[in-house]
Amino acid sequence: MKSLVLVLEFHQPEEMAQLIDLHIPREPIKLGELLHSCYNVLRLGVRTGHPRFFNQISCGLDLVAMAGEWLTATSNTNMFTYEISPVFILMEKEVTQRMVELIGWPNGGDAVFSPGGAIANMYAMNAARHYHFPRAKPLGMTTGMPTLCCFTSEDSHYSIKSASAVLGIGADNCFNIAVDDQARMIPEALEECIIKCKDEGLHPFFVCATAGTTVYGAWDPIPQIADICNRHKLWLHVDAAWGGGLLLSPEHRHKLSGIEKANSVTWNPHKLMGALLQCSACFVRQEGLLFQTNQMSADYLFQQDKPYDVSYDTGDKAMQCGRHNDIFKLWLMWRSKGMEGYRHQINRLMDLANYFTAKIKRTEGYEMVVDDPEFLNICFWYVPPSMRREMDHKEKMARLEKIAPKIKARMMERGTTMVGYQPDKQRPNFFRMILSNPAIREADLDFLIDEIVTLAKDL
């Protein structure tokens, strides 16, 4: 049974380096040795498809998607022109337009696949800057350009601040907006910050609302944020890298209410939808803007006198030249499930989250960080028996800070399961449980709860 297979066989880096031969030889290696190396690589790696791997948002192993990735490697083609990738270009157009429909843009939109959500967010910010200040493309952030600034919640992904740095806007000009006790951006705080920035001579241009935050799985209030953006004429981006998959569930898509008002959206099928890494896209409501923003018209690739409609040469709307084919595995997997299959898969995961939350609340020693999680992130502490007596709050927090790392270290030594932890603001280290793998069963969740109790019994 799969549950009897370890999630990982942990070794310290120095020991790991002795267990597998990584050197590049002068002479060729025989096939038998290569196969043995492949075996060792898989044996010593982390099994992220295991139903007891809860460590990251991207996990699971969809076999149809895996087959798609194998065939993608077999085709070994690039995604910049129709002439070398005709089927995959058409496939990408079909799938992205279906996703645009799910976002709710009745007049269509455009999209580009990117190497992860961080780059997708940067695509969105770059498009927003070009929309407001097209001269930044040829001239850069030169004299005469206003000092731009942007806004995102303090619990959003760090890539928004990173994009600000890379695009020359400056990390210090990306303002983190306060969140409420459910980790959702506070709209009033956003508008106050926008007005303050204007008063100080800055030029706001971009707001990021998050649909499914990385730690708490929180949902920023998109409709209220959209109203603020309209009042101040700002670009609204929704980072739905994690939460976008809920658009496939009629029962849960209301959590993304207002997403249709966004100017751009990030959506990572390699997260909730379960596509293999990597599979991420940036969607822009205004057709043609991605081309205008990124086009460089290299005549050795994008000739205008080809024997077909050159609008199908989509490579010039990307920052990259070479671009991996991320569409085939997604298309194949989606066809294998259909809309109804995805609806069932996502609803089941939401049900499992409710099951786990309820069990955590009634199991001695466990405490919730956020009482009623809104998504598939369940954050909790485990308080070992030695700490359940009355003690000073400051002392308890100081001791609790050390508990999760110790449990995680023992967990990795045993190799039976993996779940991440982190501190947050004034809160000591807590576990962040992620349920995105369709292979998870209730028995796997029960096992994790019992395993943590076992690992912490003498702490």
Automatic annotation (TrEMBL):
Claim: Lyase is one of the keywords in the record: yes
InterPro entries: PyrdxlP-dep_de-COase (IPR002129), PyrdxlP-dep_Trfase (IPR015424), PyrdxlP-dep_Trfase_major (IPR015421)
Keyword DNA-binding recorded: no
Named cofactor requirement(s): pyridoxal 5'-phosphate
A molecular function GO annotation: glutamate decarboxylase activity
Cellular component GO terms, alphabetical: cytoplasm
Chain positions found as N6-(pyridoxal phosphate)lysine: K271
Key words, A-Z: Decarboxylase, Lyase, Pyridoxal phosphate
Domain of life: Eukaryota
Gene Ontology BP, a term: gamma-aminobutyric acid biosynthetic process
Pfam hit, one: Pyridoxal_deC
CDD domains: DOPA_deC_like
Family per record: Belongs to the group II decarboxylase family.
Protein name: Glutamate decarboxylase 1
The organism's taxonomic lineage, starting at the top: Eukaryota, Metazoa, Ecdysozoa, Nematoda, Chromadorea
